[in-house]
Amino acid sequence: MDVEQSELDRLQADYKKAVDDWVAAIREEEALASVDHSVAKLDEWEAAHFREHKLHKEVIFRKRLYEDALREELYGF
């Protein structure tokens, strides 16, 4: 098929890194949800949510790239 093994390895590693980054952002957001009830902490929590959301979109993108390459390798399309 057309996709090199090294390219699949790179796409898989990129996806795994994106997931790890996303999980860390989820944990950061969760930790901020457990603090005091001040406006400053609310702002930090909200900012953490936006970071988490952005990283989740990156996971979806990296997953699609990896899946597309797998389909090309396994099925030729």
What do you see in this structure?
The chain is mostly helical. The protein has one domain. It is 84% helix and 0% strand. The protein contains 2 helices and no strands. The protein is rod-shaped. The model has no long low-confidence stretch (mean pLDDT 94).
- What share of residues are in beta strands? under 5%
In helices, the fraction of residues equals: over 70%
| Average pLDDT level | 94
Total number of helices: 2
What distance lies between the first and last C-alpha atoms, to the nearest angstrom?
A: 10 Å
| Largest sheet entry | none
User: C-alpha Rg, in Å?
Assistant: 17 Å
Low-confidence stretches: none
Order of helices and strands: HH
How many domain modules? 1
The gross shape turns out to be rod-shaped
Outline:
The chain is 84% helix and 0% strand.
Topology:
Layout: H1 5-32, H2 39-75
Which descriptors apply to this entry?
2 helices, 77 residues, 0% strand, mainly alpha, 84% helix
